[in-house]
Design goal:
single chain, about 450 residues, alpha/beta, eight-stranded parallel β-sheet, 8 helices, binds uridine-diphosphate-N-acetylglucosamine, binds magnesium ion
């Protein structure tokens, strides 16, 4: 295949992202929990490790860029100036340039470009609903490339052209090096537009191949929070489709949200309005009931979670265990066949197998300064509304009386009750009723 040729990827990511109106740099905004810049880097990595990201000085050594080369653009003077900063790092025959704000692009789109033999420009037809999006418009003359006109600089009739620049290009590196310095500052914005390079190439007799993508979404650029939300929606739809194709049953797909790294086996059922964040692995025949919020956990076979459950902080649920409504589990191991079905907080705990945690049980894992662990053995029965003050160890086969506040270890086979003794005064209630004037 053509794309085995030597190639550099340059990702432009030094812009200010002012249209986002956010203090978070645009490229660190996430979709499906992954920073948008990492989508593009990972897509390029599929082809080559020869990746240069042009970024701001403060981000040169950022961990997100640990596996790529970074080039600094001191101040954002436009995409033409940004690519100039990458020039010293280019050592391959061809260079593919991408804007860093298009996370939905996939390897198949880059293959189109790589298989093209010439200097190429990737274009798309803007769907009618996005006709006012400020993409650069590609002007053709009898089917041949003429120029790219930036939206800000376009006349009203040029704005009506729906063939748009995607911001993805392939250029022979020697040609790029030769002509990049010829881009002039745009009089309207004072920026150096990379897009002007193509008109310069054409004027110098270099053929530009205009590749037209049939799709819009892979090239959807993120410039505003609204653009980001649309990309999130598209990514979620891709993930939903992937899981359903793999045999995961989603009762209302559009209300289930996944993270980029979610792993789910077939035969899992997910009810409506479930949110799955980063670091979740769900094994077959598990069931996630409605309105549950799940992050960083492993859920083994036949586990049932929720409805209205919250899971986080590296939790693990062994086979056939269950948590029910209004139960939060954080950083805990719930053993095989153990259950906490109602209104509990289980934090930093290890629970053995076949144990039952009664409604309203709380592990008090935090004293305001430090976190402590609770261990509960196998076949333990923790009565409802128990308060378990960690550090604490409760042995196998124990019973904790309902309503107990337990702050000392309970050895195996023991019964622990820590609550006020009940006092019953016969006819006591009747006397009180009589003493109240308005009661007969
Ligand atoms: C750019 C293209 C436009 C195209 C659109 C596709 C230019 C001049 N315009 O417009 O034709 O239709 O992308 O999404 O190229 N950047 C820098 N340094 C700078 C300026 C920008 O690194 O000085 C980076 C940005 O961080 C971004 C990319 O270059 O990743 C494109 O810049 P952006 O401001 O998003 O340009 P658009 O207006 O989207
Ligand atoms: Mg953009």
């Amino acid at each position: 295949m053509c794309w085995t040729m030597s190639i550099n990827f340059v990702i432009l990511a030094a812009g200010k992202g002012t249209r986002m109106n956010s203090k978070t740099p645009k490229f660190f905004q996430t979709i499906a929990e992954k920073p948008i810049i990492r989508y593009i880097i990972d897509t390029c990595k599929h082809f080559s490790s020869n990746i240069i990201v042009v970024t701001q000085e403060s981000l040169l050594k950022h961990e997100l860029f640990a596996d790529v080369t970074t080039a600094q653009q001191s101040s954002p003077k436009g995409t033409g100036d940004a690519i100039l900063q990458a020039i010293p790092f280019l050592n391959a025959d061809n260079t593919i340039i991408l804007c860093g704000d298009m996370p939905l692009i996939e390897t198949k789109h880059l293959e189109l470009l790589m298989n093209s033999s010439k200097n190429s420009l990737m274009t798309m037809v803007i769907p009618d609903e996005f006709r006012d999006m400020p993409y650069g418009r590609v002007i053709l003359n009898e089917g041949n490339f003429e120029k790219i006109i930036e939206y800000k600089n376009a006349t009203d009739s040029e704005k009506l052209v729906l063939l748009a620049n995607t911001g993805v290009y392939k250029i022979e590196t020697s040609i790029l090096k030769k002509y990049i310095g010829k881009i002039k500052q745009n009089p309207l914005t004072q920026e150096f537009y990379l897009t002007d390079l193509f008109e310069i190439l054409k004027t110098n007799g270099i053929d530009i191949s205009v590749i037209q993508s049939k799709e819009y979404w892979p090239f959807h650029g993120i410039n505003t929070m609204e653009d980001l939300a649309k990309a999130e929606e598209i990514m979620q739809n891709r993930l939903r489709k992937k899981f359903m194709n793999n045999g995961v049953k989603l009762l209302n797909p559009k209300t289930t949200y996944f993270a980029f790294d979610t792993q789910i086996d077939s035969e899992v059922v997910i009810e409506q309005n479930v949110i799955i964040k980063k670091g979740v692995r769900i094994h077959s025949n598990a069931r996630i009931n409605a309105f549950s919020h799940i992050s960083e956990c492993e859920i083994m076979e036949k586990v049932e979670i929720g409805p209205f459950a919250r899971v986080r902080g590296n939790a693990k649920f062994m086979e056939s265990s269950a948590i029910g409504n209004f139960v939060e589990v954080k950083g805990s191991l719930i053993g095989k066949n153990s259950k906490a079905k109602h209104l509990s907080y289980i934090g930093d705990a290890t629970i053995g197998s076949d144990s039952n945690i009664g409604a309203g049980t709380i592990t008090c894992n935090y004293d305001g300064v430090k976190k402590y662990k609770t261990t509960i053995g196998n076949k333990a029965f923790v009565g409802s509304n128990s308060t378990l003050i960690a550090p604490l160890a409760i042995g196998d086969n124990t019973i904790i009386g309902a309503g107990s506040v337990i702050n000392k270890d309970v050895s195996k086979n023991s019964l622990a009750i820590a609550r006020c003794k009940q006092n019953v005064i016969s006819n006591g209630a009747e006397k009180i009723w009589k003493s109240k004037k308005n009661v007969k």
